[in-house]
């Protein structure tokens, strides 16, 4: 399938080039890739004609990730490190970085180098043209199984077709955002986060740049099928009541089938004097269908109720254990768009 760059809200006004860039990188057990990632980022910063910093978020790693980040922050003040108290998930780790970002342009990128940092040059050019969101769209996915590529495509298609029509296909969280987009995103404090959907929902002038996604240079994926499925559920349930409506359609369909079957049996009895005892199997099948559909709908309702329960507790989305090269203050559970959410034990500059 041939992809072409997508655009949403084609009216753009050219602006001055960004004077500062912040790159947010969530990390979880990535000690093998960090020695490769650091020189790539440093080379990128050296080629930039603007002030560049990195916010490296350690999402509760259990390997040597944080020790590497400590040395990096000690040697380079551009490396700002946030260490979360436990593993909160990639979306929460990215949110922690966004809460501390303070630059004209902010980029979220995975630390596995499957998304090339060098693509940021092209993203900054789109920013100068006037776009507020520039996302990287995958034209090819190298080093991934057929099953992974198919499920990713299917999820993107479902989201774009039925849930959020502004949702671009074949994209991840790798994207550039202007300062006003980041500030608007900080106002959205829901606990079940699906950042790519939230950003597309906000609007603003958006466009894409195409690239070929490469295989991992080191380490292993942190997204097995179980986590991928949960992530997909978060994306669908956070942006649509479609599953609830599907329950209505499914129930209506079963009702029509049941009524049709009843009419058929009535005709057989009245006009053909058929022995209805022979319909026992059909009756059991219908009961199973009806009972199963009820349980499915109740499960969907329960999933939404569970999310409401979790949201009204108003717990912080993440807890910070430590920071390096970043100041941290005590913050309330709910924060304004301009203030980061953080509960910290200590901070070192």
Order of helices and strands: EEHEHEHEHEHEHHEHHHEE
- Strands ordered across the widest β-sheet: 1-8-6-7-5-2-3-4-9-10
Structural class: alpha/beta
Average of the residue pLDDT scores: 77
H/I helix tally = 10
> What's the number of extended β-strand segments?
10
Q: How many angstroms separate the termini?
A: 49 Å
The percentage of residues in β strands lies in: 15-25%
Radius of gyration: 25 Å
- Enumerate the spans where pLDDT stays under 50 for 5 or more consecutive residues: 330-349
What shape does the CA trace take? elongated
Helix content: 40-55%
* Largest sheet composition: 10 strands, mixed
Structural key phrases:
349 residues; alpha/beta; 10 strands
Structure notes:
By secondary structure, this protein is α/β, with parallel strands linked by helices. 46% of the residues lie in helices and 17% in strands. It has ten helices and ten strands. It has a ten-stranded mixed β-sheet, sandwiched between helices. Helix 9 runs antiparallel to helix 10 (280-312). Mean pLDDT is 77; it is low at 330-349.
